[in-house]
Amino acid sequence: MFRNKSINNLKPYKVTSHKAWEYKEDKNVLKLDWNEATILPSPMVEKRLENVIKNGRLNWYPDTNNIVLLNKISKYNNVNVSNVQYFASSDALHEYIVRCFIGESDRVLIIGPTYDNFRAVAESNGAQIQNYYLNSSFELDYGKFLEDLKLIQPKVVYIVNPNNPTGTLHPKEELINLIQSNTDIFFIVDEAYYEFSGITLSQEVKKYKNVLISRTFSKAFALASFRIGYTISHEDNIEVLNSIRNPKNVSLFAQEAAVAALSDIEYTKNYVKDVLNTKTNFSKAIKKFHWIDVVYEGTGNFVFFSFKEVKQKKELLKFFSENKIFIRDYGHIDLTNKFVRITMGKSTEMSRVLEALNTFDSEFVS
Length: 366
Ligand SMILES: Cc1ncc(COP(=O)(O)O)c(C=O)c1O
Prior knowledge:
Blueprint: H1 5-8, E1 30-32, H2 43-55, H3 67-77, E2 84-87, H4 90-101, E3 107-112, H5 117-124, E4 128-133, H6 142-152, E5 156-160, H7 172-181, E6 186-190, H8 194-197, E7 211-216, E8 229-233, H9 235-244, H10 252-262, H11 265-286, E9 292-296, E10 302-307, H12 310-322, E11 325-329, E12 339-343, H13 347-363
Parallel strand pairs: 1-11, 3-4, 3-5, 5-6, 6-7
Antiparallel strand pairs: 2-8, 7-8, 9-10, 10-12, 11-12
This protein binds pyridoxal-5'-phosphate.
The site of pyridoxal-5'-phosphate (PLP) has 14 residues, from helix 4.
């Protein structure tokens, strides 16, 4: 009865099963459903946090303008400090983006299928959402998209690069072309998986005011539990975000963990290398199963694939779950109900998954 009008018809962001948490004490559980890192963060994180617990100002509110962290983020991305700001996750950043830049009835175009949180947040603020679907191979026709933008005239475009769950990588030149030909459209580019793709628009924020990048420490940096992310954008946009940002909301532990993670980039680079090698081998290996249909290796830390039959997908999800391997059912993505996404871990972990797949193949598939 007291709900906002925009909440009345809202399709909520669906939080999928987090069953892996029931096995959090179990060393054998493989949590491959939410694209988190499968390793712990750099040992430097633990060391720094031990020091924070011993000597930190735990009774104070956290630093509201952690210049050490801001400097590290700007250096890592080769931009000025005035071009970055940190938030309590990229999801939290999305809420600020919506509050700052998207009002009632503003048209938001989302290139999908994709990560659904931004849609839910924008919709809850009364935005008019329009989806623009990738083609059946999960690719975008950039020429057509450019033309369609003229017709649709959105205020904001949300684009995930590389895209989750399809792994689609939008080439930098194509995105730059879109941005410079549409200076009246605000492009939110979610680069949650940047460390895996190596492709970024970070340098474009120096030239264009109509692009804002969203980044996270939850994936390659292995800090998902801390909740910390950041944005890279033109300083005018950072100023707007700062005008309503609650600076107390990023915990001291999250700030210090991010500083430590950025002090040990080699650790992250090695992890990314292992994941990417493993992904190539894994994608190749699963193509041999006759019950798997199409495999999208993509450019993130995950592989997206479809089954020939829904029945086999359901059986595999059940078999995996019984073996404490959790992957993400993406049946809802289209009418075929045949897609799943699996996060890539280290080579040792994915060998275990392949072993399980071989067992499934020989014992269960009819
Ligand atoms: C594209 C994308 N953006 C953002 C997020 C969430 O990141 P964070 O943990 O910083 O909220 C995810 C998590 O799956 C994601 O896939």
